[in-house]
Design a protein that fits this description.
There is one protein chain. With 642 residues, the protein is α+β, with helices and mostly antiparallel strands. The protein has a domain at 65-223. Strands 1, 6, 7, 8, 9, 10 and 11 form a seven-stranded antiparallel β-sheet that branches. A four-stranded antiparallel β-sheet has the order 2-3-4-5, with helices on one face. A three-stranded antiparallel β-sheet has the order 14-15-18, with helices on one face. Strand 6 and strand 7 form a beta hairpin. The chain is globular and about 85 Å long.
Length: 642
């Protein structure tokens, strides 16, 4: 969860501080639209709200029953659903289904509820066992599934995932690299917009957040309106037409139906419908005032999202179909008219036995049977006369284990794929990112700088790169000038939560807590429950010895993030400093209940119990912690099965 990450992913060298402070001192307020000289202002223009008269896919069934039936069987139509409602594809086991070092995992059904269980065992027996119910299955199951648990409008990912092609349970991507995630990986719109039909944000939410209304989903799986746009006006118009037809003898014009048919759009706008989910890029950043779900069919993609491409990306990323296709000879020779729907039917998937014939017909629509240099006999011997088996082979996806990916570069000779698959995405030259498909010529300059600044800041904090940090701040601050705006931040970015949070993190990492606090405080004025700003402000207050202020932030953070162990652990640490031992014990117990591996919280718990005179509880907690640390150090039976 970004909200409760460490103050910075890495401490940026203080050498960047001078450059960053120069940029900060040179800020000033500029006009909000355009200055008299016609030059672009610091703030990107605010964008109008999006049409939102959604009705849900079920409203389409009345008139489009056949299309709906095939679409609901399509992977998109099965992209997310309740665990108790999706088709069961997983294989259970009476014992552990996966292991990760000292931890083992089980899947159990109890009274109709599916639970994922993590436990650690040593020679003395069970150290801990945590069972968490899972409520949603994310993914059609074609490649696999991830699992989500819902808690009061929050979604969290389980460590366990199902990998269909291997027919096995294993840890979800990222969990082996960061074992602290456990059951606390927060799922927000940035994770859901390619898997869910539509979420229902919580009232008052500002910027990206993992807070939703209950129920979380307006529509669980990808639905008709993700490709055709909100259907309210269309349904109303067609109902009026239906009523008129009952009384009119003359045919009624139904060409204007207030709905988007992607096949009638220009190639660029048609492809944007697919690219909203199938374009990976190096980063996908919503424009100022936009969210991940704000794209509407008929838009260009960069009307909503700034997608940055970089040749540092993996050619075999699990969702890189667009980049690969655009690198193909088929795409370049078509002058951009080739697209996803040139080969794919968005409403149905061909049956396995018909797949080769279906795609061969799509290839022949452009090339003809005579285009292949092999005889029919050679084609049959080499690839069972299948164009895609020869020119679009499968390989293991680099970022999702146990999963195969169809190569969309449409190679001429199969041998070339082995060389290209380990290289970089061939659509990009140079290491620095650029905006996808010429979007830089359409976007305001400040919008491009904002996206590049956010991207550079992420890398700077992760890599402890002082030069990149300075570049990020320069991009985010824009042209140099003078006076600060409200709450000590410039007016032009005063409502831009992602930029404020990023600047806060950068300044916090270079020791300028005063400026960082101004950024965090401004965010909290916009959204008092913003967990990332609360965590940042808490850390700065505690580091400067302002413990009463730190406790106020810790109280608010624990209330905003009740299901995150670190929120309670940080509160326990503050309470220990203030010698408020009873409250410290309660906060530490809550943290340990949420995360039995939280060493710091267990140390606070032991300390609090001793100060309260409860030696039995302190000794029990100390013994348990020692057993856990011994297992982690030496390995456990779970980590070394016979």
């Amino acid at each position: 969860m970004r909200a409760l990450r460490p103050l910075a992913a890495g401490v940026v060298a203080v050498a960047a501080l001078g450059l960053i402070l120069v940029a900060w001192r040179m800020w000033s307020v500029r006009p909000t639209a355009e200055d008299p000289s016609g030059e672009e202002t610091l703030a990107p223009p605010r964008l109008a709200s999006r049409p939102d008269d959604f009705v849900g896919s079920r409203a389409c069934v009345r008139c489009h029953a056949d299309l709906a039936a095939t679409f609901f069987a399509h992977p998109m139509g099965r992209s997310l659903g309740r665990v108790d409602a999706v088709t069961r594809i997983e294989h259970g086991s009476p014992g552990p289904v996966a292991r990760d070092g000292d931890r083992e995992y089980l899947v159990v059904e109890r009274e109709g509820v599916t639970e994922h269980i993590e436990r650690v065992i040593d020679d003395m027996g069970l150290i801990y066992e945590q069972a968490v119910p899972v409520h949603f299955a994310l993914g059609s199951g074609r490649r696999g599934r991830s699992y989500l648990t819902e808690r009061e409008g929050r979604l969290f990912q389980s460590p366990l995932g199902w990998y269909t092609q291997r027919g096995c349970w294993d840890l979800s991507p990222g969990y082996r690299d960061d074992r602290s995630l456990r059951f606390e990986r927060v799922i927000d719109d940035s994770c859901l917009y390619c898997h869910a039909g539509r979420t229902q944000p919580a009232p008052g939410r500002v910027g990206p957040s993992g807070r939703f209304s209950v129920p979380v989903f307006f529509e669980e799986a990808i639905g008709c309106e993700r490709c055709h746009g909100p259907g309210g006006r269309h349904v109303a118009r067609m109902e009026r037409i239906r009523a008129q037809e009952e009384h009119e003898t003359q045919p009624i014009n139904t060409s204007d139906t207030d709905i988007v048919n992607p096949s009638h759009l220009s190639p660029e706008r048609r492809e944007a419908v697919c690219n909203q989910c199938h374009l990976a890029g190096a980063a996908v950043i919503p424009r100022l005032g936009r969210g991940f779900f704000d794209f509407r069919p008929g838009d260009l993609l960069d009307d909503t999202l700034v997608v940055l491409e970089s040749n540092a990306g993996d050619h075999q990323a699990a969702v890189s179909h667009t980049e690969q296709m655009r690198a193909s000879r088929c795409f370049t020779a078509s002058n951009g008219s080739l697209g996803c729907t040139s080969c794919h039917d968005p409403h149905a998937v061909p049956a396995a036995d018909d797949r080769d014939v279906f795609y061969r017909a799509r290839c022949h629509a452009c090339h003809g049977d005579e285009a292949c240099g092999l005889s029919v006999l050679q084609r049959v011997e080499r690839a069972d006369n299948s164009c895609i088996r020869c020119h679009m082979p499968k390989a293991a996806a680099g970022d999702i284990p146990h999963t195969a990916l169809t190569d969309h570069t449409i190679i001429r000779h199969t041998a070339k794929f082995a060389r290209s698959s380990s290289g970089k995405t061939p659509t990009v030259s140079g290491d620095e990112p650029h905006v996808f498909a010429g979007g830089v010529s359409r976007l305001p300059r400040r919008e491009v700088d904002r996206a590049l600044g956010l991207w550079n800041a992420t890398l700077a904090l992760r890599q402890r790169d002082s030069q990149r940090a300075a570049e990020a701040v320069a991009l985010l601050l824009g042209d140099p000038i003078t006076d600060p705006g409200p709450a000590g931040v410039p007016d032009a970015v005063a409502d831009d939560v992602p930029v404020l949070l990023t600047l806060g993190d950068l300044f916090a990492s270079t020791g300028r807590g005063d400026i960082a606090t101004a950024c965090y405080t401004r965010i909290l004025a916009l959204d008092p429950q913003d967990e990332a700003a609360l965590a940042g402000a808490l850390g700065l207050a505690a580091a400067s010895g302002q413990m009463a202020t730190a406790l106020d932030y810790a109280d608010r953070l624990a209330k905003a993030s009740p299901f995150i162990a670190e929120a309670h652990a940080r509160r326990a640490a503050i309470l220990a400093t203030l010698a408020r031992w009873r409250e410290c014990r309660e906060a530490a117990e809550r943290a340990v209940a949420l995360d039995p591996t939280a060493v710091g919280a267990q140390q606070r718990l032991i300390e609090a119990c001793r100060h309260l005179g409860d030696e039995a509880a302190a000794n029990a907690a100390e013994t348990r912690l020692q057993r856990l640390e011994d297992v982690i150090t030496a390995g456990s039976p779970a980590a070394n099965p016979p």
